[in-house]
Amino acid sequence: MILDKTLQTPRLSLRMMSAADASEAYLGWMRDPVVNQYLESRFSVPASTQDLVRFIEYVNASSDSLLLGIFLREDGSHIGNIKIGPVVTRHARAELGYLIGDRNAWGKGYGSEAIREVARYGIEELGMAKITAGIYETNIGSAKALLKAGFKLEATISSHVICNGRRLASQLYGLDAPVRT
Question: Which residues form the N-acetyltransferase domain (predicted)?
């Protein structure tokens, strides 16, 4: 999917990722076991910025996903990424995945701000009726960000994932589009 504009929030700019965004800092997030502990990508950590470029190009070429960088408006710092997709048009639903990789940006509400804006885009501009996000039960930061963005916990699947050698539940959060009459 292609987004030919930048989504703006009061503190963030969300724009399509490009090869130039495959920085050493981004690679460092993906290699940081604290940052990636809840990401499935921790099982195939990129070896180089070239691996990140390939990932960015792969998602950008996709017809059902959109990868956006999360940048601070005040100084342009790249602090994370958010992806909407796959978008399942026949069911008018899409999934969200996100990462605030810069640990200095944790706990400041940037995640919920980005989630809220990308969910708005998915509903209002892509015509989705439902946006979902799955997390591990111990990912308290993500749970808080989703709730703050208006999502609701819809399902818990016990013993669904392995994290740090333990079986954990996964949780599905959802946001329904307003009913149109």
Answer: 12-178
pTM: 0.94
Q: Is 91 helix (H, G, I), strand (E, B) or coil?
A: helix
Q: Which residues pair with 106 in a beta bridge?
A: none
Residue type, 31: R
Q: Is residue 94 part of a domain?
A: yes
Cα end-to-end distance, the chain, whole Å: 29
- The predicted-structure confidence for 5-37, as pLDDT tens digits, reads as follows 999 999 999 999 999 999 999 999 999 999 988
> Which residues are registered as beta bridge partners of 170?
136, 157
CATH code for position 54? 3.40.630.30
Give me the number of domains the chain comprises. 1
CA angle 82, 85, 88 (to 5 degrees): 155
Pull the structure tokens for residue 127.
Answer: 């015509």
